[in-house]
Amino acid sequence: MPIECRQSLEKEPFRQKLLKVAPSVMILAFASSFPANVLAANSVLPPFPPGLFYPVDRGTAPTIPGATLVPSRPIFDFAGIPGWIHGKKVTNSMKVTIPKYEMLVIRGSRIKNGKVVIPAGGLYFDASPARGELPMTGASDYFLGKRYYFVDYDARIHIVKNVKVFPKKLTVAGNHLYTMLLPPVPKVIPNPIVNWRTFDGVSIRPWAFTERWENPSPDRPDQKPMTYLQGVIQSAGKKGVTFASLTGTSIHREWWAQSKLFEGSAKEGQIFGKGADKVVIKRIEQNQSRVTVDFIHNGRKILSRTLVTLNSATLPEDPSLRSRMIAIHGSMAVVLWPHDAIEKNSVHLWVYGGVARWDTNRMNFGIRHVAYFPIACPIAHHIGAMIYNTRALALSPGKPVSLFGGYARIKVVSIDGDAVKFIIETEKGSTPVFSKNGNIDAVIGGGRAAHGILSTLDTTDLNLADDFTITK
């Protein structure tokens, strides 16, 4: 299996009503292994063999309102919301165990005319697994407390040209956000230190990002390629970095299933499914490494697909290979095992039911005024998802407001000038009454996104880029 995105170190959960973020951060400098006379890197070319798995999309990546909002002096409560998924360990078919978390984030809120106003995109549920997920692994995740199985997805790489990255500001590239922490220091740190994070807050360290120069030199060498996130630098100074090109990844749609109907070795003639929709293993051609499946609706064949069993080091990332090993029709899906699927006249596969396509910013779980937004890591693995408010919310004291179709309720207890108290409730209990000044920005729950937001506040609160001087 491919190397997953770097995991955050999760600590034991603890109840913390108010955490004042300390302005401290460890700066990591990357040593270059490139020769001084290396040529400028192509701004689109994949950074490392065996090549580019995901297609380069020269269009605009999907985005959300308030994408660059960061919670202001937020309350951190890592114990989470009662009844929500918190550290639940789930093992996929590849025997990889991944803890799952659900958290709530509020950002951009303010007190106005005796109410608390939260802008569009300022309140979101976040499914935050402790590492990346891929199709063809039997992966699953939890959204609003319900388990779904990961069938397939459409991930892309985006290139933004002539973009500037500043200190203390977030610049968008694909579905990623960049900020400059430190300018380059001649003969010490030849490249600027640039931080990376996702829309929901994940910030993988060390930074999964490679900077190269349009005109490399011994004083400004290229960094060794790390991931798909690449920046080709035109110039850099104390006030920011200008990139000739800067990349980010995104996910445009995903397919999730409500149930896993079968996992294992199937033989010709076996039928899977319930009710009107079924799948038949029609034919297994071991010599041709092929299997044909028929999709049945109300007893009638409506589609036949021949899948090819492939063995490749690029699986399951490579979407062109996955398309030959996954068949989705209606509410049913058949997914071949990524390696050696056919043996002894049987085929190793998964069969899923209740399959649906979740389009980015369109899927809403049947809930008004919310939308689904999947999160891609630098290698374009799925590493979580947001369900965010598409319209602003106005909260009046003493009036509970339902969130995410009733998965939680938020209630402003009181507003006294600049001081506000609020609480999050579920059928399983409630958080403490939180006290805050000026807003109700909060991060409630665990997972990588929660710790990423904490590190983002650490770095963006620093004043190093302004105070730093260079001795010549």
Provide structural commentary.
- This protein starts with 55 loop residues before the first strand and ends in a 5-residue tail after the last helix.
- It has helices at 319-322, 448-460, 464-467; strands at residues 56-57, 75-77, 86-91, 97-106, 110-112, 115-118, 123-127, 140-143, 146-165, 171-173, 176-182, 193-198, 210-213, 230-237, 240-266, 271-274, 277-285, 290-297, 300-308, 326-329, 332-336, 342-343, 346-359, 370-376, 382-389, 393-395, 401-403, 408-416, 419-426, 429-430, 434-437, 442-444.
- The protein has 3 helices and 32 strands.
- It is flat, with a radius of gyration of 24 Å.
- It has 3 domains: 66-150 and 360-467, no CATH class; 156-251, no CATH class; 259-357, DU1608 C-terminal domain (Tick-borne Encephalitis virus Glycoprotein, domain 1, Sandwich), CATH 2.60.98.40.
- It has 472 residues and is mainly beta.
- The strands form 6 sheets. Strands 1, 8, 9, 13, 14, 15, 20, 21, 22 and 23 form a 10-stranded mixed sheet that branches. Strands 2, 3, 4, 7, 24, 25 and 32 form a 7-stranded mixed sheet that branches.
| Biggest sheet descriptor | 10 strands, mixed
Radius of gyration: 24 Å
How much β-strand is present in the residues?
over 45%
Instruction: Supply the number of helical segments.
Output: 3
Shape field? flat
How far from one another are the termini? 48 Å
Please report the total strand number as a whole number: 32
Overall mean pLDDT stands at 86
What number of structural domains do the residues give? 3
How would you classify the helix and strand content by structural class? mainly beta
Unreliable runs: 1-41, 462-472
Give the helix level as a range of percent. Answer: under 10%
